[in-house]
Structure prediction request, 114 residues.
Amino acid sequence: MSDVATVALKALAGGSLVLVFAALGAVVKPKRFAGLFGAAPAVAIAGLAITLATKPVHDAHENVIGMLAGCAGIVAYAAAVAPLLLRTAPLRASALTMVLWLVVAAGVAAPLVA
Prediction:
């Protein structure tokens, strides 16, 4: 399968799953859980499924490492940004916690890739 066809298939699958997750988020109670069904998980699942179908398992493994590293980074970002926003300007808080995200994500991915 060509790279263009793979990207198109990922977009179609990701978009379809986003719609499914959005519908699920619309009916879930309480509404604060609706964010759990956002676009990122749907796109990640679709992308991983297409990668598994079109590429070697090693490529899917690398994708999963990136997803896990990004997840760890966003958890660190979310934990740090709220308290920092109480003490500093939003742009500064965001910039500092983006650096934290990068450090955490790289720290998680580095030993798994090597």
In short: The chain is about 85% helix and 0% strand. The mean pLDDT is 84. The chain has two domains: 1-55, 57-114. Residues 27 and 34 are 8 Å apart (CA to CA).
